[in-house]
Design a protein that fits this description.
With 296 residues, the protein is an alpha/beta fold. It has one domain: Aldolase class I (TIM Barrel). Helix 7 links the parallel strand 9 and strand 10. The C terminus is likely disordered.
Length: 296
């Protein structure tokens, strides 16, 4: 395992984050990710991550984190997983995330974790402790209900079916948990069938919410990587992408409006929360009475 030098681990979010789960701080303990997801935005050149597929630990990250946490005048919800999945395979051995969660609990902060890994189940005990005093939200990225397809577009992570099972286990433990249904890959996962099955499986496993994106983002190095993977796995789609999206960053599905309408219909059928303002209110409501306005 390689290490990189870091001056800080915790950074204050400097803008109104009511559009993205209302978090207050951002934290990344690792740099890079080995999940191999073909669509990952963190590959983009703007983030300057050299050898993105090679996971590195930030040197002395737990010491730095504790020094930062104990000097904060205001607690809040710490976002984890924005740049790389904190539950990568190395976490099983090094337990960096687990020990960071212990510090988050010790100093009275909340946590919002985005992941694709069921390794998070190992830390249910700590998440329950945090949930006694502060907001906790777990967001599982699920892009397809088909395990065989998930192994193509997210090759080094547990299949979708295991993520749904993990959602149920977290919910059974009283943790507010749901689905990031994103990205939705044009011509690959942008179907009513996919939406219907994800919504139904999320409901069956007692998920609290689903938050969607009806497209994918593509830029710089990420676009090159994604197109290379299209050549390998979906060669007939490369021309469609190049012709339709050219150099656009946000590449919405050509069926964006109909997919959005069908998604809302399916959520209403099973009583699933999907509006950002409602998600934020629900997971924070035991700790604060402030509701933030946002429309999907």
């Amino acid at each position: 395992m390689d290490f990189i030098i870091a001056k800080e681990i915790l950074s204050k979010i400097q803008f109104d984050n009511s559009h993205w789960f209302g978090t207050d701080y951002n934290m990344n303990l690792y740099r890079g990710c080995c999940h191999g997801c073909i669509y990952c935005d963190s590959r983009s050149n703007c983030y300057n991550i050299v050898e993105f597929d090679k996971v590195k630990i930030k040197k002395d990250c737990l010491t730095i984190l504790e020094n930062q946490l104990k000097t904060k005048r205001k607690t809040g919800v710490i976002q984890i997983g924005a740049m790389s999945d904190t539950y990568n395979p190395f976490e099983k051995k090094y337990e960096i995330t687990r020990n960071a969660l212990k510090l988050i609990d010790k100093y009275g902060f909340g946590v919002a974790i985005a992941t694709k890994s069921d390794l998070i189940l190992r830390d249910i005990d700590i998440l329950k402790k945090i949930n006694e005093h502060s907001p906790v939200i777990i967001k599982f990225t699920i892009t397809t209900f088909k395990d065989e397809l998930s192994k193509i577009i997210e090759p080094n992570v547990c299949p979708s079916s295991d993520r749904f099972k993990a959602i149920k286990m977290l919910r059974d433990a009283g943790i507010y948990t749901g689905v990031l249904m994103m990205p939705m890959l044009p011509f690959i996962t942008d179907t009513n069938e996919n939406i219907k099955n994800i919504v139904n499986l999320a409901s069956k496993n007692n998920a609290n919410f689903i938050y969607p994106m009806f497209g994918v983002t593509l830029r710089s190095n990420q676009r090159f990587y994604y197109y290379e993977k299209l050549k390998e796995n979906f060669p007939n789609l490369l021309y469609k992408y190049e012709n339709l999206y050219k150099d656009k960053y946000v590449c919405n599905s050509p069926k964006y409006k109909s997919l959005q309408s069908y998604f809302k219909y399916m959520c209403s059928e099973v009583g699933m929360t999907y509006r950002m303002e409602d998600i934020i209110f629900q997971y924070k409501s035991r700790f604060e009475n402030e509701q933030i306005s946002f429309d999907l």
